[in-house]
Amino acid sequence: MVEKERTRGAWESRIAFLLIIPSLIIFLFFNLYPIIYSVFLAFTNAEFTNIAGRYSFIGMENFAKLLFHPDTRFYYVLGRTALFVVTSVPLKVLFGLGLAVIFNSRLIKGGKILRSLLILPWTIPAMLSILVWRGLFNLDFGAINQMLQSWGFPRVNWLQDTTNAFIVYNIVEVWLAYPFMMTVILAALQSVPPELYDSARVDGAGTWQRLRYITLPLIFRPLWFATILTSSASFQAFLVPFVLNGGGPARTNEMVMVYGYKEAFQLGNYGYAAAFMVIISLIVTAFMLAGMKAGKMAGEEES
Amino acid sequence: MKKRMLTLILTVLLTASAVLIVVIFLFPIYWVVLSSIRPYGSLFTTKFELIPSEVTWEAYTWLIFESKFFLWLRNSLIVSILTVVFTLVLVIPSAYSFSRFKFFGKEKFLYGYLVFTQFAGGMGIAGLIALYAILAYLNLLNSLFVLALIYAAGNVPFNTWLLKTYFDTIPRDFDEAALVDGASYFNLIVDVLLPIAKPGIATVAIFSFMGAWGEFILAQTILSPENYTLPVGLYSFVGQFETKWNYFSAMAILFAVPVVVMYLLAQRYLQMGLAMGGVKK
Predict the structure, then answer these.
(1) How many Cβ atoms sit within 10 Å of the Cβ of residue A77?
(2) Which of chain A's residues have a Cβ under 8 Å away from the Cβ of B27?
(3) Under 8 Å between Cβ of A192 and A219
(4) ipTM here
């Protein structure tokens, strides 16, 4: 009897593995292996002429060039990216929070329909939305410049100027992110039991005090994790700069992802770009881990 | 009485501002629709027109008779449908296995998938560079089939979790009863479990389709012009020196409509699938 059970168990785990193996192999080969392989590439001289397999090991050369070469763009690109995180994340959080608070009001007639209309942009592929924004900010036929001119202002060269383009990145990033931010925060707001507000009101708490002492502490954790996720997204912004103007003009607005991509696929410096991306990945992972840990700790303190 | 007046005023004010917000945020969509039905020359005005003075279907007739739209559409459909098929074929058996069987290292595999979905994002371009080198070495660049396989591979971790938690909600009695009746595992999955798990499977299928439909970076990196999918084709169209913006707008609308409609129609399914699957977990 025991023997029979055991053979059945062995047979079951063989079936179990058979069912898992195909997905596991495909996943390992196309997802995990490239990531491991990229670390190896970072120590090679892979470039256009030898990418199909004839590159060789060159030790730390790529990393040394990245970090210590006098002409390295590493620190500039990293700084530009940090600036984008610092400007776009507060904007995204504020817009998400503001929209969520407004649309959480039960006084709005037809709120449900308006809400689902408002998050409609979420369903449109991001790269298409960004292409449309590229048109909206076009010098000649863009609606933004046409509005400015209709109101008597001069037209603005949005995408071929470093600062202007950076402003456009922020606007587009907010537009792409608000459906997510608003939805997360709205869900958090709606999970606050209304009785809490009622009893606070009875105790004489004003609107500001209710927001400060009831709403914010209760939605803090979801808000924090949404902020971590959206910060990581800002740091890794690729489509927004790449599709709007290629990180231009003259490479002045390249974020880390765009820089890595262009070094590899437009300039053919595959090994050098892999080294760059490995360093960036370490930064992102450290940031995510620290953020999640801080969020967990803050959550434990409160409860 | 005074309080009721105040509530009424607040209702009107809040509703009005909510409508205004929706109008402002959705303006880009309206503008694309507008641009697609205006004659090319009239786009270059210095005055903003909310309602066009001239309307033409020229962009749409160009799209149908002269553009590369249908070539790109064909490629996009091939990739997206293949991605859905590959994803389902890979994920359904493995999710079933994770849900029903005990085996060595099961928790480790599941945990690995979870960690991967949370942190692999940071390796995006690094992985892409290595993937390019591997595909170049194997001579597999510029293949729609391989592209779909890579998309499906990327779908494995999250969707295995989603469907596994979905299968967990289906009582095991169903399995036992079917197996006692002499059904094979294949029959059990196809005839008994799949019909019950329809919302979960629909969620996986729709997400896979939408992901493949809109993906740009990988497609742009490995495909050559004859194999361009819609996102890559549209990007190359805008990248040209002089962009016929009315033509682009018409193509953009036809590109976006299927996924938006699909999302709206499937919204109920998606919420059901997500609520019972991953999120509740």
Answers:
(1) 23
(2) 143
(3) yes
(4) 0.90
